[in-house]
């Protein structure tokens, strides 16, 4: 069984104590990629790449690892998982990130 | 069955020797008072190259048991030992160990807890750990302390069980007492306990997430699984003791007993006091008193079915506790037994004797008095009080 | 047969080891034996007791000894007042003292109380032999010699399991002297 189908079944309540894995082990991790937490977002951060100084503070601070570090230390936001918390906006020293609708 | 000659062993030495023969992979311990020489001796075995194991000295008992959980989930055969305050400090992780289904062997040299300051024999330490989901076995003498160590690993690591098991030995009375024991050979030990095989070891090549969160929608189901693992302990235990009998010639069961077949009055005890009460019972049997004695080997899971078979034929029972459930109905074993009696419709008088707290010696003539009290309970159809704190100066 | 022995001495003198060695020797002889200490505050110099049970049947009882067949006092100062340490001793029981034996009063008391009295000046012989004060091994050797519970060879084997090198040599010297010099004053 894949992690995805495990999680879906459990979320739907399709399980008994006998079908659950022993002691809440997850035998096929990771399960978190199955949760596209980007759907939780109200506003989204948008990076103005012309202002970015490649300090990587947003990459360090993002609690959901939704900031991707690129080859040249530019960053890109993974909107599949970004919850729109805005922490990247407040830590950016050059105000290169803004929250926008959507 | 290859017999080895009878050897003199101190209780804690005998346990260390058994653990070495069990060929454990990891020992994590915090060897400071209150302790016994068990892990000290094991560290010598490791240092001398007599035992190929990782000895992890840690900074507290809490860390010792935590290290044991991790090592057990990595598939190792794991051992630790502690007692009294040390076990209390482990308490949080005792639950984690059993619920994460981490088989661990642990010897508890049962001692009292503060205050007043006292480190002598009492069962309060393990009784505090009663409801943690560990299997708790009690040894009556040094030979049993040795033998049950093998049996504990056999039960703990069985895929039907996968639970930690404690072997309880009375502090000082057994841990620091020299008695003769007949060990099993290293070859028999290796056959009885081949290297552990575990289906889900921590392994970077095949990641598994352990110790996850379970919210209210699944938590009870996980706990139910865990409860059922404990329910499977008796069948595994029965196989384990049968196989052990083949190599050792010594038969273990849920309890030891003396003359219970035709007894009217039964005294039930845990630990080394069994031998003392048995010795007194021999004398009373010679006088014609129909008394029997039971020393419970398996305390958790409580072997209800087996207890019922014995209790059904009794006319009165005295339960001896070397611990007390403060604010409760009596000692922990007593409350178990009256529960067993009630829900199985056995209506016989039951009395609780609380004795030997803080290491107070329990003498042969006192054992005789308890047996006579049980017998009087049969004749009079009841006891004057439910619970007696035996020997307290009033 | 059940022989119960109570040991008296002070913390640091090897009371517990003496009792331990006796049990080991008896088990090596094929008997059943049990040794257990009575732990108190565990301070050097504090009075300490230890117990040994010996039988040809398995010993199942686990409690202290209150009516011993034998009392061994290994401390030379305590040995001057054996009356204080023989409580519970059975009539006809044996007392072993670390004592030169030159005290008529003690002899008279033992005789009238119906006890057998044996003395060994363990302090003197250990100072002479090894220039140290070791009481437990010579007192045990003296007891074994008198009571013939096991051969001295068995006892020496047990010592060799426990000690080695120079320490073993010293102990063996003490065993020899003790077995030669133990004296029964009241038989």
- Strand content bin of chain C: 15-25%
CATH homolog superfamily of chain C: Pyruvate-ferredoxin oxidoreductase, PFOR, domain III
Mean pLDDT of chain A: 91
Q: How much is the radius of gyration of chain A in Å?
A: 18 Å
Question: Which CATH top level class of chain C fits?
Answer: Alpha Beta
Q: Compute the number of structural domains of chain A.
A: 2
> How many whole angstroms does the radius of gyration of chain C measure?
15 Å
Q: Could you say how many structural domains of chain C there are in total?
A: 1
CATH topology label of the largest domain in chain A: Alpha-Beta Plaits
Order of helices and strands of chain C: EHEEEEHEHHHHE
Unreliable runs of chain C = none
Which class do the helix and strand fractions of chain C yield?
A: alpha/beta
β-sheet strand percentage of chain A: 15-25%
**What is the helical fraction of chain C, as a range of percent?**
25-40%
Q: Which sequence of strands runs across the widest sheet of chain C?
A: 2-3-1-4-5-6-7
Q: What is the percent of helical residues of chain A?
A: 10-25%
Which chains make the largest contact? Answer: B-C, 26 and 20 residues
Number of helices of chain C: 6
Walk me through this protein's architecture.
The complex is a heterotrimer of chains A (102), B (394) and C (187). In chain A, 19% of the residues lie in helices and 16% in strands. Chain A has 102 residues and is α+β, with helices and mostly antiparallel strands. Chain A is elongated. Chain B is an alpha/beta fold and 394 residues long. Chain B folds into two domains: 7-248, 3-Layer(aba) Sandwich (Rossmann fold), CATH 3.40.50.970; 255-389, 3-Layer(aba) Sandwich (Rossmann fold). Chain B is built from 13 helices and 15 strands. Chain B has helices spanning 11-21, 38-47, 61-73, 84-99, 124-128, 142-157, 186-192, 219-231, 233-248, 273-286, 304-311, 332-343, 364-380, and strands spanning 7-10, 26-29, 54-57, 78-82, 105-110, 135-138, 165-170, 178-181, 255-258, 265-269, 291-296, 298-300, 316-321, 350-354, 387-389. In chain B, the strands form three sheets. Chain B has a seven-stranded mixed sheet with strand order 3-2-4-5-7-6-12, with helices on both faces. A six-stranded mixed sheet of chain B has the order 9-11-10-13-14-15, with helices on both faces. Chain B starts with 6 loop residues before the first strand and ends in a 5-residue tail after the last strand. Chain C is globular. Chain C has 187 residues and is α/β, with parallel strands linked by helices. The B-C interface holds B 6-8, 10, 120, 141, 170, 172-174, 176-180, 272-276, 278-279, 361-364 and C 20, 23-24, 27-28, 30, 32-37, 39, 59-64, 66.
């Amino acid at each position: 069984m894949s992690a995805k189908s495990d999680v879906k079944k459990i979320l739907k309540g399709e399980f008994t104590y006998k079908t659950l894995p022993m002691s809440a082990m997850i035998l096929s991790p990771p399960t978190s990629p199955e949760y596209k937490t980007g759907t939780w977002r109200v506003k989204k951060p948008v990076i103005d790449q012309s202002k970015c100084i490649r300090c990587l503070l947003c990459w360090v601070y993002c609690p959901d690892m939704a900031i991707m570090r690129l080859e040249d230390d530019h960053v890109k936001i993974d909107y599949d998982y970004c919850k729109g918390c805005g922490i990247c906006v407040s830590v950016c020293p050059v105000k290169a990130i803004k929250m926008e609708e959507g | 069955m290859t017999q080895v000659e009878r050897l003199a062993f101190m209780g804690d030495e005998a346990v260390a020797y058994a653990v070495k023969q069990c060929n454990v992979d990891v020992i994590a311990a915090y060897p400071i008072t209150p302790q016994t020489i068990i892990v000290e001796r094991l560290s010598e075995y490791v240092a001398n190259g007599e035992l190929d194991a990782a000895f992890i000295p840690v900074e507290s008992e809490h860390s010792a048991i935590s290290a044991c959980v991790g090592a057990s989930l990595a598939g190792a055969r794991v051992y630790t030992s502690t007692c009294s305050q040390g076990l209390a400090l482990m308490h949080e992780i005792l639950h984690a160990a059993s619920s994460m289904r981490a088989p661990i062997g642990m010897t508890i040299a049962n001692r009292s807890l503060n205050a007043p300051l006292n480190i002598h024999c009492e069962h309060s330490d393990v009784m505090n750990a009663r409801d943690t989901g560990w299997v708790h076995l009690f040894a009556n003498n040094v030979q049993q302390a040795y033998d049950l160590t093998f049996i504990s690993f056999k039960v703990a690591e069985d895929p039907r069980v996968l639970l930690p098991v404690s072997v309880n030995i009375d502090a000082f009375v057994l841990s620091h007492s020299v008695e003769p024991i007949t060990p099993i050979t290293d070859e028999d030990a290796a056959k009885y306990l081949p290297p552990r095989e575990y289906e889900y070891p921590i392994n970077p090549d095949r990641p598994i997430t352990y110790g996850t969160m379970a919210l209210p929608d699944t938590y009870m189901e996980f706990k139910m699984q865990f409860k059922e693992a404990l329910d499977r302990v008796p069948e595994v235990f029965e196989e384990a003791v049968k196989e052990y009998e083949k190599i050792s010639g010594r038969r273990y069961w849920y309890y030891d007993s003396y003359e219970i077949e035709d007894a009217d009055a039964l005294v039930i005890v845990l630990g080394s006091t069994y031998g003392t009460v048995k010795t007194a019972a021999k004398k009373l049997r010679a006088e014609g008193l129909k008394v029997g004695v039971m020393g419970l080997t398996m305390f958790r899971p409580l072997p209800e079915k087996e207890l019922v078979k014995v209790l059904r034929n009794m006319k009165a029972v005295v339960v001896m506790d070397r611990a007390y459930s403060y604010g409760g109905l009596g000692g922990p074993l007593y409350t178990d037994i009256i529960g067993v009696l009630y829900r199985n419709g056995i209506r016989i008088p039951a009395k609780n004797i609380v004795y030997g707290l803080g290491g107070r010696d329990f003498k042969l003539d006192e054992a005789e008095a308890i047996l006579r009290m049980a017998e009087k309970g049969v004749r009079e159809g009841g006891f004057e009080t439910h619970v007696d704190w035996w020997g307290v100066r009033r | 047969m059940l022989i119960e022995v109570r040991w008296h001495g002070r913390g640091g003198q090897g009371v517990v080891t003496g009792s331990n060695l006796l049990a080991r020797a008896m088990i090596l002889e094929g008997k059943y034996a049990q040794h257990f200490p009575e732990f108190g505050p565990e301070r050097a110099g504090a009075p300490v007791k230890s117990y040994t049970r010996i039988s040809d049947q398995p010993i199942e009882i686990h409690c202290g000894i209150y009516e011993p067949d034998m009392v061994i006092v290994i401390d030379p100062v305590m040995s001057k007042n054996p009356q204080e340490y023989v409580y519970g001793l059975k009539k006809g029981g044996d007392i072993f003292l670390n004592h030169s034996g030159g005290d008529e009063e003690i002899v008279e008391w033992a005789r009238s109380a119906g006890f057998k009295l044996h003395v060994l000046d363990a302090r003197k012989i250990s100072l002479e032999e090894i220039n140290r004060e070791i009481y437990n091994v010579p007192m045990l050797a003296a007891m074994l010699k008198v009571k013939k519970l096991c051969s001295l060879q068995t006892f020496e084997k047990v010592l060799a399991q426990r000690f080695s090198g120079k320490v073993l040599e010293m102990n063996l010297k003490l065993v020899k002297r003790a077995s030669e010099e133990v004296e029964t004053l009241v038989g």
